[in-house]
Amino acid sequence: ALVVIDAAKRLRVAELQMLAKLKGYQKEKGRKFPPLYLCLNKIDLVKPNDKLFDIVEFVTSKADFEFTHYTCAPTGDGVFELLVDLLSEAKPKPWPYPADARTDLTLGERVAQVLREKIFERYYDEVPYQIGIEIEEALQLSSGPVELKITLNARSESQKRVLLGKQNSRRKHLEITSGKALFNVFGRPVNVQIHIKTSAEARGARS
């Protein structure tokens, strides 16, 4: 398994949570858990270079890594060595799924995956990691577009305002782009309606 860390940015909460989960999996599964590779990317943006060792020391204290690689995508530094190491660990084995299977995700999981991808493209920092996605309604008739009603759960009012944008511009953009991307999932046009709530509003609606 490969963990890529942006060396030029501080570790975010979601990344720390991911490292904690990996550490838990390692303890739970022991030798059955695949080796972890740490890739520290964008090393050209870190000055002085000694800071890289501090980052590696911190990350490797959170989970056990077999190897550490330092890479810079624009120059290609370290990329070849990383690929060689990954290929050396790639062991041939029987394919566990039917030959015509495209994914093992449920339809709902695929929809949520597309939504989160579009959120990543539009928003930055912690927002994509913190948003909850709920598919409230999916209507598929024999003909015509698929109708999806989706709720995004924001952590706070300020985060909700970020998601909505000025005069709902960001929400509308997210509806359009995710609808276009979901055509590849359903094989026909998809109309997406997105409602944005705070976590407190969502809890109040359920109580």
UniProtKB/TrEMBL annotation:
GO terms for molecular function: GTP binding; ribosomal small subunit binding; rRNA binding. It comes from the Eukaryota. InterPro entries: GTPase_Era-like, KH_dom-like_a/b, KH_sf_prok-type, P-loop_NTPase. One of its GO terms (biological process) is ribosomal small subunit assembly. Signal peptide: none annotated. This is KH type-2 domain-containing protein. The lineage of its organism: Eukaryota, Sar, Rhizaria, Cercozoa, Chlorarachniophyceae.
